[in-house]
Amino acid sequence: MAIIETNTAIIKEAMEFIYICYSELGKTEEETAQRFSQIQTEVSETGAYTHTLEELEHGARMAWRNNNRCIGRLFWNTLTVFDERQQQTSEGAFEALLRHIGFATNGGKIRPAITVFPPSHNGQDAMRIWNHQLIRYAGYEKDGKVVGDSTSIEFTEACEKLGWRGAGTHYDVLPIVIQVAGEEPRFFDLPEELVLEVELDHPEIPAFADLKARWYAVPIISEMKLEIGGVSYTMAPFNGWYMGTEIGARNLADEERYNLLPAVAELMGLNRDSNRSLWKDKALVELNIAVLDSFHRAGVTIVDHHTASKQFKSFERKEETAGRKLTGNWAWLIPPLSPATTHIFHKPYKNDIVKPNFFYQNSAIK
Ligand code: ARG
After folding, report:
1. pLDDT digit string (tens) for 202-233?
2. What is the total count of domains within the chain?
3. Which of 17, 46, 247, 342 is deepest in the core (most CB within 10 A)?
4. Residue 1 within any structural domain of the chain
């Protein structure tokens, strides 16, 4: 795109963002107009503009509020925003990520947070994280069999090419890979004591512990880009806390992931010969109880899907009161366990994309 067209596009996005953001922040019309004209000048002179800390903070919160796939949006306004736009090195960025993990984990009382690194300029990334999530288990494929998390196979191979070696268990925490523009990617191992994990057992089925299943406490998505007012933050990892079904009905249950249902059914003594026994469903419920109960007893924040749906209902009401149109992606909002027991299942949602928002972007892995 020609420079003038690009600048016009940025200014248009900036205008849409600034007017909404400033009105939500209770700024005067004069302040808003002044800030917008400042942005216009900055963009026409430099081809970009820099958000104030207040704009970055509120913009990131709006992005969460607008994310149609997220059932946890009631809490959008509690997001803590760490401004790390000054970072230029992978070491510095890694230190900032360690601070994020420590803050978010908070001994188990999980706090939603985002760390924002330098935005892209003229479509060029300043820095990228290769990981899908900051904390994630490795996946190894050996003669058609997978050890660990199958969703990590490609990234795990990339880490091995960089010289990393995992122990080869089902639950090896992957290193963080950071690439600064124009440099080789670098990997950093996470200090073990920083990564909170929960070993799973079941309140009524002692044999459950024999599965030696576990999951990490904090999901920190690190591959998406945060877009605010025409500015693309291509490195902006963010976290909330888990909803139990993400782990119990998907990560550990999907046939293509940890595929634990047959083993759970086995230790429950269920008849796996007939679909009509609903052994999968029974095992699924107990696996989800194990996840919720284990996290709870370990003092790690987690929400069950019934409570999360109730919270989403409050969010829907609050958005209506605020005079904002609710958007949502039904297929993502319904929980994978007992969806029709939640109100979400029984109504349609408009999947319109409103910005600021989080978007998928081209993979950083080379
Ligand atoms: N579903 C993903 C996982 O199981 C995490 C996505 C974000 N989840 C969240 N509760 N913020 O790892």
Report:
1. 999 999 999 999 999 999 999 999 999 999 99
2. 1
3. 247
4. no
List the catalytic residues: 70, 73, 241, 246
242 Cα to the center of ligand 1, angstroms:
6
Q: Which residues pair with 358 in a beta bridge?
A: 226
Which atom of ligand 1 is found nearest the CA of 136?
12
User: From atom 10 of ligand 1, which residue's Cα is the shortest distance away?
Assistant: 242
What digits encode the pLDDT tens for the residues 310-351? 999 999 999 999 999 999 999 999 999 999 999 999 999 999
Q: What is the CATH number of the domain that holds 79?
A: 3.90.440.10
pLDDT of residue 4: 87
CA distances from 105 to 64, 109, 241 (A): 19, 7, 9
- Residue 214 structural domain: 50-220+230-333
CA 155 to chain centre: 17
Residue 261: inside a domain: yes
Residue nearest to atom 5 of ligand 1 (CA): 219
User: What does each C-alpha distance from 159 to 151, 236, 262, 305 come to in angstroms?
Assistant: 14, 21, 31, 34
Note the pLDDT tens digit of each residue in 59-115. Answer: 999 999 999 999 999 999 999 999 999 999 999 999 999 999 999 999 999 999 999
Tell me if 357 is assigned to some domain. no
- Whether pTM > 0.90 for this model: the answer is yes
The residue whose CB lies within 8 Å of the most ligand 1 atoms, and thus the one to mutate among 171, 242, 243, 252, is 242
**Rounded Cα–Cα distance for residues 336 and 338 (Å):** 7
Any atom of ligand 1 within 6 Å of the Cβ of 240: yes
The reply to whether 72 falls in a domain is yes
